[in-house]
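I need you to check the entry underneath: sequence plus fold tokens. Let me know what the token row says about the fold.

>
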Amino acid sequence: MHSTDTTLATAGGVTDRRRWFALAIVMTAAFMDLVDVTIVNIAIPSIQREAGASFSEIQWITAGYALAFAAGLITGGRLGDIHGRKRIFLVGIGGFTVASALCGLAVNPEMLVASRFLQGGMAALMVPQVLSIVHATFPAHERGKVFGLFGAVVGLGAVSGPLLGALLTEWNLFGWEWRSIFLINLPVGVAGLILGSRFITESKAPRALKLDLVGVALVTLGLLMLLYPLIRGRELDWPVWGYVSMAGSLVVLAVLVAFERRKAARDGSPLIELPLFRVKSFAAGIAVQTVFGVGLGVFFLVWTLYMQFGLGWSPLKAGLTGVPFSIAVSVAAGMSVQMLVPRFGRKVLQAGALVMAAGVLLYISEAGHYGLAIAPWQMALPLVVMGVGMGLIVAPLTDAILSEVPREHAGSASGLINTVQQMGNALGLGLVSVVFFGTISDHLRPEQVGPAFADAFQNALGWVAAVMGAIFLLMFALPKRPAQHVEGGQAPVTEKEPALVS
């Protein structure tokens, strides 16, 4: 994610035991970000009921975070390179804590949406520094062990996020209901701020790229012009200005490309390194990453709505139902990187897409067969199949995309990979209005809600299966045997995984 990632720690910093305290602090921050993404989905019905949020506002509560996170990721990494990773990390974790407090104290849905945008922006400052601090603090021979620990934290966050959200919502601590999922960040964030200022060693890149704030503004504007009409269109009866705005987003994208070309020629520090797209495997991989993000953005939101609104399940029951999925993702991800990809290469990722599609189709069949009487154990098989498919993809995908990228561009390329995945996720959350709510009538009697949401869920899953088919085809452009040549090659993977399991 960064233009340069050199080991800048002094000899004392490398040998000092304090580096393990620093590692615990930055990993806790990464865990907090991951949990905060996954924890929100399970609390959505409580937010909708208690705060009076409309379904479009619910989409913004999730998509706003993803959009702000995506738009700020590369800039956050560069700010750390320029001004110091420790300093920007502390600004990020402090801002994330303040934003969490604002989310928990929100007096209306609009304030909650705005606070989620702020939270995503602060995460974009905090998260890119985590792996840079690891690189700057630990010698090369220790990083493999550190990245292994980081992967374990990612897996733990994937499993514990929905469960923690379910428990906090069910327990209704101090009568806070859903607010506790945000307010729990306060003591963790304050502790991280105090301990981080003491134990983290400062580091900077020797030749950091300049900021490209115009590029960030154009990316954000283009995505907002696309997402806002998608999310609000259904309830506004699809006005003409919505179509104009979505078409205009393509114009903004074209302006972005032209500006990035000029910026690269002028000072060599564009937000997006356009020459990377001449590398066939990178361009195809970016497409895979984006489309994958769209599919996951759709699935996770409609899955929550289906279980809690359609089936009337409690947050805890819904949270526990997702545990087999999370475990399957973690196990398959470990196997794919260590055992399968070295032997079978690209075929493992393509098998993952087909297995995930099979799991989605099996889920559609189970949901249709059992109807509203479906039980969590009847969902276990399709969820495990989907989880295995997803695990086969998420862990080795970054290395496959980067394998033909020149080493000197690896930092920029991995930053772009993470950014487009988040953008795809935000776009998928926006598309929920079309593929899910678009099939639900605005005026449902109470007895019609369950069947309507169950039908809409099956329709949305049909789109997710189609997305997996498209990913399978796009993967033919990836190299048959990804080369593991980027130093610290697992770093981009671990930075990406939280978003994928949100």
Q: What stands out?
A: The chain has 18 helices and no strands. The first helix runs from residue 11 to 15.
